[in-house]
Write a structure and sequence with these properties.
The structure holds two protein chains of two kinds.
Chain A lengths: L8 H4 L19 H4 L5 H27 L1 E2 L2 E2 L13 H8 L7 E3 L5 H14 L2 H10 L4 H6 L7 H17 L33 H14 L6 E6 L6 H10 L3 H4 L11 E7 L2 E2 L2 E2 L13 H5 L7 E4 L3 H16 L5 E6 L17 H9 L2 H11 L5 H23 L15 H5 L24 H7 L21 H13 L6 E4 L15 H4 L5 E3 L4 H13 L4 E5 L9 H7 L3 H4 L9 E6 L12 H6 L4 E3 L4 H13 L4 E6 L27 E4 L4 E5 L3 H16 L3 E5 L2 E3 L4 H10 L2 E8 L4 H13 L8 E5 L17 H12 L13 H9 L3
Parallel strand pairs in A: 3-4, 4-5, 5-9, 8-9, 10-11, 10-12, 12-13, 13-15, 14-15, 17-18, 17-20, 20-21
Antiparallel strand pairs in A: 1-2, 6-7, 14-19, 16-18
Chain B lengths: L2 E4 L9 E7 L6 E2 L4 E6 L4 E5 L4 E6 L6 E3 L3 E6 L18 H9 L2 H6 L21 H9 L18 H10 L2 E2 L1 H9 L2 E2 L10 E2 L5 E2 L14 H16 L2 E9 L1 H12 L11 H15 L5 E3 L4 E3 L5 E3 L1 E3 L2 E3 L2 E2 L7 H17 L14 E5 L18 E14 L5 E14 L5 H16 L10
Parallel strand pairs in B: 9-11, 16-20, 20-21
Antiparallel strand pairs in B: 1-8, 2-4, 2-7, 3-6, 4-5, 6-8, 10-12, 13-22, 14-15, 16-19, 17-18, 21-22
Helix pairs in contact in B: 3-4, 8-9, 8-10
The chains are: A alpha/beta, B alpha+beta.
Chain lengths: 822, 448
């Protein structure tokens, strides 16, 4: 809702019609001899060599999967291998013009793309650069294996390095490109510009957009190619990624030199099948995939179908599209038509297609076709092609021999180091900035109106008499978050923040008020209403090396970003063997008052997924300190905020919220009120209800409650909690998450495990009811209330003399609710 | 042998339960642990398991019946065994309507009826197990507190930390050595009622009975040995006999009542009947110096003042502290002194000098509070006399108008050493004691 864009009713109400331009389909029609001037003879042969290497690599994998043998070498590979035999020309054509600074993202079927991009990068790198990359990658661990044999030069060595690193990764060897933790569907090698493939169909559809955003915002060289399948066109994240990538603001609102389209090609590797589903004619309605571009933006995404069975046609298309991107007119949609002879996977019986169809495509096999062209144009003699094939087979045999040898290519030793994978889940880095350069801001920090306002606020929420200051005078929780974030914007040049209503509005809950005037568009902007893409682009942005704060306006919308938050954000650090970092702070606001789809506390869902740090501060002091820690770190942090308490002052921390920088380590709970008789543990905003419960306990029953705010869910250091529980022997855990399967239960179980002999009663959980969140007027029957806590203590921990319960926490009631799924 | 199945008692306040469902039918085979029937109190529902295996020979209550707790509801046994002896007396007399309504009700509805939010706390504790929290158990073990007889105040009667803490406050102090020995498991706490301030030493511990034995040999404590030797010597070395008499207790009872109701702001101690009797004994002894002395074989030692010994029952056994120069004391002073001495005995802090038999010139021992009517106190040698004080009884007595009335009387049993004194003077002593009792002058203005 920027004010500079005037929506003129005269204009928008005018009658008219939308006209579309033409979308080229297979327009390339040059014979090789017409291209001779554009390529060196070596290049044209190299194209064949690359296709040959890919074909043999995949043939080998196919034989290993189906017969456990390749050229006399036996091996059983139980893991996946989604092959692309038949698609080599598309892969090599795609990669031919790309250098190491250009990033590709892939799918589950990307072996060919990885090898093609690697071969292209190797060709473009200098000897010295290649040596440095190979020697420094995991301290030369992968290199050491291929150095067992003499090579004629660095390029020869690098070719083995690429093939071996990929194959060892597919076979889950520690010497693979990602320590064997990525595997077939996730093998990648960033130094060659090969970014993660993705086992989730369309997974790269928004992540790659984030990488392009990174390139633009940080003014880094190169383009980004999202190699995704034709069937992924049916996936939400792909559409969201396309929507995000084609936002008008890049061309209308962003300042020079950032103005203009994203350097991105959505390259649909269109092999015409989604597993067994035929996209054209069966599962989609576009007829020709490239048609989609017409509906997206006036540029029609420069969409084009290109014949992926002719490497030169693909190269030609990329050459033209890269020029479009150079002119900042991206992104581009390419429909690269191809076909796979191999099944979806080796277990595929091809029951969905006829032998005739496969054979018809084999008749037009790109390798044979291109080899003939080379021979006809006297660039290669027939014997030489056979020689090249033999040489390739021998190379693949050599690589395979190394990759299946447990001595040469060991797997991660989880007997010796049982926690080795666990240790890779978080990088636990500490970095003030992700890049060394001056952050771009629009004004000195101290001139910012909000910064000036905050100077006048009371940083401790209570006056000397113990009464709360008025809201307008109080330094609030939202101010704590703001201070940490604006501080980081002035320190880390790579930091960007976006989400729904992040810019002019100042965030739906006024956390960002004041940021708009301080930051240029490319650092703070409104995103499409695409939670998947908001999270997904942040993942791409972070894995390229930037720091980012995406925002989910309501926790309930997290489901819209399910794949991104559950499958992508948490996994890539470990799946890359920590080659990639993930400095994403995903702000998630937990609502109330707005009913069933705007009031849920989903902290437990996120805490369940390994690989995410999860925090939920409840006071301004904690909010600022934890946000500082999250922004200083290099791990994905899901930062929950509660809309109930954006306006609370700091009532616990002596001295209030410091003006300067400080961090609260993620994972440390905090005692908010000291007590001796019972421990009340809270998550998020329930802290304040527990305080009321503690007052009732003290006043009515002379029971002294100790209140611990966990602040972080993952990681969580239990020592403080156990110390308290050992003292009191009694513990009640409360949070706004629905009780069943919640993190509250996780804590209860852990406490029972670790402090069983000290417990005077089982740990008792008081969460929300296992219902829909009702209307605001009925919320007190849904969310934990102070009276519930007292009743539960009376019923399940320690009967309180004279206490009359209002809520039923009996065994019978509990059993009945469980029986009914309530 | 046939076994009755009872309706279990779920909590002290529960008198009846509704039998909601029979899982087994009459004549059906049941195995130990099978669910037999379901029942509910006004607050919770339970399942009862069979405690024995056999045939369900008979069922005395139908589904829906209200059953008194502990009543027999069924019999399990071998085919053909008689069951009538187990049949509850009231069964069979019930009206046809009751049977009708009982079988017509849907028990399921009773079970799922929405319960009001009331605190219940009835857990299905496995029989024989005492529900106790881990924390309470740990604390009990650390402090060597037995919990099998404690009443838990946690949910469902679970023994929780506060119950053990309460027991600790009420239980005797256990010396570190005794605690160590208790931990060995071979020795146990002496059987006695909990009483604050008592120190249990290692010598007080008793051997735990081994499984299968019918008795345990408990070594005598040092104190028990002393008492045993003293009693034996008294009976074998003296010529003791006992006279019984009773004195009108109207006046002392009235005085006692006055003491109880009088608000003196703490100026007066809580003067008991025993205090008053002792005061009367002192006054009487002053008139009968022959009773206030020691028989020493060749001589009789007569004391100028009364040094009154009085028996105190303590956890460790009988103790007899002495009030020196009791003749000099007013009734309140006597009362106070005796209380202090008794307290010192209970807590174990008594000056041993005040316990020697030779220190007292006469002893009073009171079993009245136990309802004892007559007994023969044993002399505390070398003292010549010991007075046993009995319970107060109502005895008929002629009224002035010629009728008969019942009046309270307190019984006295005087044991004396016939070597030192004869029957007549002993009887005169008792007679005067009765008069002193009946006409006691406490010397306190408020009580006159």
């Amino acid at each position: 809702m920027p004010k500079q864009l005037f929506i003129d009713p005269q204009k928008v109400r005018k009658p008219g019609k939308i006209t579309f331009g033409e979308i080229p389909v297979n327009q390339y029609n040059k014979a090789l001899k017409e291209e001779k001037e554009n390529y060196s003879a070596g290049d044209l042969v190299r194209i064949y060599r690359d296709m040959l290497v890919i074909r043999e690599f995949e043939t080998m994998l196919n034989l290993i999967k189906t017969t456990n043998e390749y050229q006399g070498i036996t091996y059983n590979h139980p893991g996946p291998a989604h092959l692309s035999i038949g698609q080599e020309a598309a892969a090599v054509g795609m990669a031919f013009l790309l250098g190491p600074e250009d990033f590709i993202f892939g799918s589950h079927r990307s072996h060919g793309e990885i090898l093609a991009k690697g071969l292209s990068a190797i060709h473009r790198l200098k000897e010295q650069e290649l040596t440095e990359i190979m020697e420094s990658y995991f301290d030369g661990r992968t290199l050491k294996v291929v150095e067992r044999e003499e090579h004629k030069d660095v390029y020869d060595l690098a070719l083995d390095f690429l093939l071996y690193g990929t194959l060892a990764e597919i076979f889950a060897r520690e010497t693979g490109f990602n320590k064997g933790l990525g595997g077939s569907m996730h093998a990648f090698f960033p130094p060659f510009g090969i970014y993660p493939n993705n086992a989730i169909v369309g997974g790269s559809g928004d992540i790659a957009v984030g990488a392009a955003l990174y390139k633009k915002v940080n003014r880094e060289k190169g383009i980004v190619v999202a190699n995704i399948g034709d069937a992924s066109m049916g996936c939400g994240p792909v559409w969201e990624g396309i929507s995000f990538a084609t936002m008008d603001q890049f061309k209308t609102l962003w300042d020079e030199p950032y103005r203009g389209g994203l350097p991105l090609i959505f390259n649909f590797m269109n092999n015409q099948y989604g597993m067994g589903g035929q996209t054209a004619g069966e599962t989609m309605g576009y007829g020709i995939l490239a048609r989609i571009g017409a509906g997206v933006n006036p540029e029609m995404m420069h969409a084009e179908r290109v014949d992926g069975y002719n490497p030169l046609a693909v190269i030609d298309a990329f050459r033209r599209k890269m020029e479009v991107i150079r002119q900042k007119k991206g992104p581009v949609l390419l429909d690269t038509l191809t076909y796979r002879y191999s099944g979806h996977s080796p277990s595929d019986a091809s029951s969905y297609r006829t032998r005739k169809e496969v054979e018809a495509w084999m008749q037009q096999d790109s390798l044979r076709f291109y080899a003939n062209e080379l021979v006809e144009n006297k660039l290669l003699v027939k014997e030489k092609t056979d020689e090249m094939h033999t040489e390739t087979v021998q190379r693949i045999m050599k690589i395979l021999t190394w990759a299946v040898d447990d001595q040469v290519s060991p797997r991660m030793d989880l007997v010796k180091h049982p926690d080795e994978i666990g240790e890779l889940m978080f990088s636990n880095g500490s970095a003030e900035r992700m890049k060394e350069r001056e952050p771009e801001v629009l004004m000195p920090l101290e001139e910012n109106s909000r910064v000036q306002q905050l100077k006048k606020k009371e940083r401790f929420g209570l006056d000397p008499q113990g009464s709360p200051y008025s809201k307008v005078k109080t330094f609030q929780l939202r101010d704590g978050i703001f201070e940490a974030i604006i501080d980081r914007f002035y320190k880390d040049p790579t930091l960007v923040a976006y989400g729904e209503e992040n810019r002019d509005w100042g965030g739906a809950f006024a956390v960002y008020r004041g940021l708009t005037e301080a930051l240029p568009y490319h650092r703070l902007f409104n995103a499409t209403i695409s939670e998947g893409a908001i999270a997904g682009t942040a993942i791409g942005y972070a894995m390229c090396g930037g720091r980012v704060i995406p925002e989910i306006m309501y926790c309930d919308f997290l489901g819209r970003a399910g794949d991104e938050v559950f499958n992508q954000m948490p996994k890539w650090q470990a799946m890359s063997g920590q080659v990639l970092k993930m400095p994403v702070v995903l702000r998630v606001s937990v609502g109330s008052k707005y009913g069933a789809q705007h009031s849920q506390d989903w902290t437990s869902l996120v805490a369940h997924i390994p690989g995410l740090k999860v925090v939920f501060p409840a006071t301004p002091y904690d909010a600022k300190g934890l946000m500082n820690a999250a922004l200083q770190g290099t791990d994905p942090v899901v930062f929950f905020e509660s809309q109930r308490i954006y306006d609370v002052g700091e009532y616990f921390h002596e001295g209030g919220v410091p003006e300067g920088y400080y961090e609260i380590p993620i994972g440390q709970p905090d005692v908010k009120i000291r007590g001796t008789d019972i421990t009340l543990i809270t998550v998020g905003a329930t802290l304040y209800r527990a305080v009321v419960a503690a007052e009732i306990l003290k006043k009515e029953y002379n029971v002294s409650a100790e209140i611990i705010d966990v602040r972080s869910l993952v990681p969580l250091d239990y020592s403080l909690i156990l110390e308290s529980v050992r003292k009191t022997g009694k513990v009640l855990i409360s949070g706004d998450a629905t009780e069943r399967g919640s993190f509250l239960k996780e804590m209860a179980q852990t406490i029972a495990d670790l402090a069983f002999d000290d417990l005077d009663a089982p740990p008792v959980v008081v969460g929300s009811r296992n219902w829909i969140t009702p209307a605001y007027e009925l919320e007190d029957y849904f969310f934990p209330q102070p009276e519930w806590m007292v009743d539960a203590i009376h019923e399940r921990i320690m009967p309180l003399e004279g206490h009359k319960v209002k809520n039923n926490f009996t065994n019978d009631k509990l059993l009945k609710l469980k029986r009914k799924g309530m | 042998m046939a076994h009755p199945v009872i309706m279990p008692r779920q909590g002290q306040s529960v008198e009846t339960c509704i039998l909601t469902r029979w899982y087994k039918q009459k004549g059906e085979k049941v195995a130990e642990g099978d669910f037999l029937f379901a029942f509910e109190t006004d607050k919770a529902a339970f399942d009862e398991e069979a405690q024995v295996s056999g045939i369900l020979l008979d069922i005395f209550y139908e589904e829906g019946d209200e059953v008194p707790v502990l009543a027999n509801v069924a019999v399990i046994g071998e085919q053909g065994e008689p069951v009538d002896e187990f049949r509850p007396a009231e069964r069979g007399k019930e009206s046809p309507e009751e049977v009708e309504s009982a079988s017509g009700e849907k028990p399921e509805e009773l079970m799922i009826k929405e319960e009001p939010a009331v605190s219940t706390v009835a857990y299905r504790a496995t029989s024989g197990e005492i529900p106790i929290s881990p924390r309470a158990k740990k604390l009990a073990e650390q402090k060597s507190i037995g919990y099998t007889n404690l009443a838990g105040t946690g949910p469902g009667g679970r023994i929780i930390e506060r119950d053990i803490l309460q027991a600790i406050r009420q239980s005797p102090v256990v010396t570190p050595l005794a605690r160590e020995k208790l931990k060995s498991g071979k020795l146990g706490m002496p059987q006695q009622k909990a009483h604050p301030g008592i120190r249990i030493t290692s010598g007080d511990l008793i051997e735990k009975p081994e499984e299968g034995t019918v008795y345990t040999d408990r070594p005598l404590s040092r104190m028990r040995k002393l008492i045993a030797a003293g009693m034996q010597r008294s009976l074998s070395e003296s010529a003791q006999l006992t006279h019984h008499i009773s004195a009108g207790a109207g006046r002392i009872l009235a005085l006692r009542q006055k003491v109880k109701t009088l608000e003196t702001g703490g100026r007066l101690p809580d003067i008991t009947l025993n205090d008053m009797v002792c005061y009367a004994v002192i006054r009487t002894l002053e008139k009968h110096p022959e009773m206030n002395g020691h028989f020493l074989g060749e001589t009789i030692r007569v004391f100028r003042s009364v040094h009154l010994g009085f028996a105190v029952d303590t956890e460790r056994g009988l103790m007899v502290p002495v009030v020196k120069d009791a003749s000099r004391l007013t009734l309140p002073e006597l009362s106070m002194t005796m209380k202090e001495l008794a307290q010192a005995c209970q807590s174990g802090s008594i000056n041993p000098d005040l316990l020697a038999a030779g220190e007292a010139s006469f002893t009073v021992t009171n079993l009245g509070s136990f309802g004892i009517e007559y007994f023969t106190p044993v002399l505390n040698l070398p003292q010549i006399g010991i007075l046993g004080v009995n319970t107060i009884r109502y005895q008929p007595k002629p009224l002035e108008n010629g009728g008969m009335g019942f009046f309270p009387h307190i019984g006295y049993s005087l044991t004396y050493d016939h070597r030192a004194i004869d029957g007549a003077p002993a009887s005169r002593f008792l007679k005067d004691l009765c008069a002193e009792t009946e006409n006691i002058h406490p010397g306190i203005p408020e009580l006159e």
